[in-house]
TrEMBL record:
This is Serine/threonine-protein kinase RIO2. Residues 66-306 form the RIO kinase domain. Residues 331-344 have a biased composition (Basic and acidic residues). Its EC number is 2.7.11.1. It comes from Westerdykella ornata. Belongs to the protein kinase superfamily. RIO-type Ser/Thr kinase family. Residues 331-407 are annotated as: Disordered. It comes from the Eukaryota. The lineage of its organism: Eukaryota, Fungi, Dikarya, Ascomycota, Pezizomycotina. Residues 367-382 have a biased composition (Polar residues). The keyword Glycoprotein does not apply. Residues 345-365 have a biased composition (Acidic residues). Pfam families: RIO1 (PF01163), Rio2_N (PF09202).
Amino acid sequence: MKLNVKNIRYLGPDDWRVLTATEQGSRNHEVVPTPLISQLASIRSGSGVNKCISNLAKIGLIAKVKNAKYDGYRLTYGGLDYLALHSHTKASTVYSVGNQIGVGKESDIYVCASETGKQLVLKIHRLGRISFRTVKANRDYLRNRSSASWMYMSRLAAVKEFEFMKALRKEGFPVPEPVAQNRHTVVMGLIDAFPMRQISNVGDPASLYAELLSLIVRLAQYGLIHGDFNEFNILIEEKTNEETGKVTLIPTIIDFPQMVSIDHTNAEYYFDRDVACIKRFFERRFGFTSDEPGPSFNDSIKSITKRLDVEVEASGFSKKMAKELDAYMKEHGVDGDAGEIKRDDEDELDEGEEEDDDEQDEGEADTSTSPSNAHTLTSQMTILELRDNDPLPSLSDIKPQFHPAASIAPSISTKAAKAKAGWAI
């Protein structure tokens, strides 16, 4: 599902009411009956509701299900995207959205900006995208909260990531700055760095290796295991000392939906897998092999500094929510990138096999795009909201002056005049 925000500015208040009503109805209905949408939207004019439904269906925010037993609509990922972006806009968190800078099996990453021009990252969780092949054979997950719907699960993943990111940032861990979370989206600070999988050579692999393993141990000492600690989820930033000219590599950890507590049944397995992923990558990519064994899970948890897993649970991401998300991921094979050496090829295959209702454009950007050239990524951002103080072109620029011959074309077109005045076209 490719995010397209070009129509978001033109939705009216009634359109938002109908879209929100469809989302509310989706909590108990796979296909929301049209009368229920009308009732929840509370729009006086019945024809007004039908007009809004038609408008929303045309741009793919809601969809009619074929062969349904009754007249109704379902909310699409596009509709959920618009609702989340609308909330971020109203909260003055996101003002414009730019290019896609990454895509994972269960998420999409976009560069965005605030009203002040600060560059941010918008992560959209899309649990269910890859697992649709499994879900087609088992639609029961849509009918009850125990196995949950894709919307609910995507929201859980976003809540979990945001809460863990806040807790880790507070304790000084190298993670992006958490800015906001709404529905299935997380807004975070933009890191001027490259994914470690794109780096072919480093001057001192031993020091970077030691720092990454120390992060795994430190997480365990704070009661957490990343569960997906590998070259796909580590960003490397270069910082140069102006006096000495020495370049220092600073790692940043991303992607936390699969983070687990040290009390988890398979905690030791996930810890060992994280360590093995780093060892394997450094051996294959940089030809570096450490002489020292370990670290081990039991040694790492001998000295517990703080239980962040308990703090996050108390802050809102409960044990029940964690169990539901964990069960969903196991049921549908969402088990991170660990051990998947051919991740890029698999992503391309999976993207082509998505649900027909969530087709993507063939020309989607490569997943290896780095945010390091963020100034170019934000050059063609789409503003999400129309403002009354937007500059207007002069009437003389738009309307051609009267000419007796009536055959002479105007000196400037309407589109060119709007562009000249600074309109986002």
